[in-house]
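Q&A log
Question type: sequence-to-structure
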Amino acid sequence: MRDHDVVRRSYDNVAEESTARMHDELVGKPLYRALEMRMEHIHYAHEAETRRDYLMVRRAAAA
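Response status: OK
Response body:
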């Protein structure tokens, strides 16, 4: 397993735990809840873009 995979998994674990702890607190705070949802969207969009770029590089190298 590569170092960045370990870091990503650690981050995901911390993010999941943090989200679970903050859920009840954010129920009464719509702005914070919206910001949290936006940050999650940005994270997953970046992750998808990184994977797409990685696959493009691998395909080009294999050709």
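Response note: The two ends are 25 Å apart (CA to CA).
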